[in-house]
Amino acid sequence: xxxxxxLLMLSxxxxxxxxxxxxxxxxxxxxxxxxxxxxxxxVQDVTTTPPADVDPAADEAGFEDAPEVGFHQQxxxxxxxxxxxxxxxxxxxxxxxxxxxxxRIITLNMATTNTKxxxxxxxxxxxxxxxxxxxxxxxxxxxxxxxxxxxxxxxxSEGIDMVEKSIxxxxxxxxxxxxxxxxxxxxxxxxAPMLGFMGTVLGMIEAFxxxxxxxxxxxxxxxxxxxIALLTTVAGLIAAVILQLFYNYCISKIxxxxxxxxxxxxxxxxxxVKHQLTTRR
Length: 281
What we know:
The protein is mainly α. About 85% of the residues lie in helices and about 0% in strands. It has helices spanning about 1-30, 30-50, 55-60, 70-80, 85-110, 115-140, 145-155, 160-180, 180-215, 220-280. Helix 1 packs across helix 2 (about 30-50), helix 5 runs parallel beside helix 10 (about 220-280) and helix 7 packs parallel to helix 10 (about 220-280). The protein is rod-shaped. The termini are far apart.
């Protein structure tokens, strides 16, 4: 009954279209047979031609192009899919580790000084004003090297041996200050992938639980657990890689400052020996 009703509706539409075209062409003095052929051709074109806004290739494939997802939205979706319990902890490790690393980088850059210029100023002060003038120069400089110079100059009256011992002892103190906070960055570098691997294990356990409940090993059953496992692992590794880069930069910066401290300490001892020999003469 429904098919008969549809055929009747289609016949009525075609008849109405043919009558309208015949009436218009008859008023213009054209041939009726030509109009009927044109009408039939138009109906055939409408039937066979797909809509303009639909891609024929996509229609043949059975689907349309999915809307593009932005990078931030995709990262957000991955974060939610991975589970907020472990993904949140991994993100917290990354944030705290970056905060400590940035603080260390700023501190180390401020601790860097021009050693040659400082030594030249100390030498000029020793030659013009003696030990006290040299102390004023080093106290006005906040770098670790200047602090070591101050400690060495304070022990200059006790002999060169005491100056060397003071420089070595206080150099260890300054080195400890430079390395302050690096242990936390190292902790987060180790902790982030460990949390990711823990999420991986729990995701695999969830996948096997789903297999046990469903009694089936189809991909649909285990896909969610495996996805969580992979996302937590990737998040932990990304956090560890980022923090490792900052950690290595801090270590290289500390090594550079320590090398300058050692060279400058030797140069200071030479200056003090030269100053003592000059004052004796």
